[in-house]
Structure formats: C-alpha cells, structure tokens
Amino acid sequence: xxxxxxxxxxxxxxxxxxxxxxxxxxxxxxxxxxxxxxxxxxxxxxxxxxxxxxxxxxxxxxxxxxxxxxxxxxxxx
Length: 77
Hints:
Layout: E1 2-4, H1 5-10, H2 12-20, E2 25-29, E3 32-37, H3 66-73
C-alpha cells in the first residue's frame, strides 16, 4: 500500500496497526515512494566469547619484529 504523507499524518495510528498486522506500507511524497513503514525489531545483545577456545594467540604476539620495524622506520629507526 502506497500512501502520501498528508494521508499518513491523518491516519498514523491506523497505519501502525496495519504494519503490526503484517501490511507493507510505503509513504510517498507527490506519489514518489520515500520510506517503508516497518515493525521495530529490537537489536540483539552481542554474545561474547563465541570464538573461545578456537583461536590461539602466540606468546610473542606483542613482541617487536626488527624486519617490520625496518620497513616502517628504515635501518636507522
């Protein structure tokens, strides 16, 4: 269903009920579709630790590498 802004303003409560019941509503300006009305979906909380036990960080992970330092800073850096 495509509905112009002025009509949407006048019938907002009814449109919200329709969207909650699964109706697809597009709000238009001068019959040009602008936005879709959709039911709000709460963001899911992030689940921490999904890769626990699947990744191994080596002991020397934070050690400097002279070859890489030379690439960034040159031989005298």
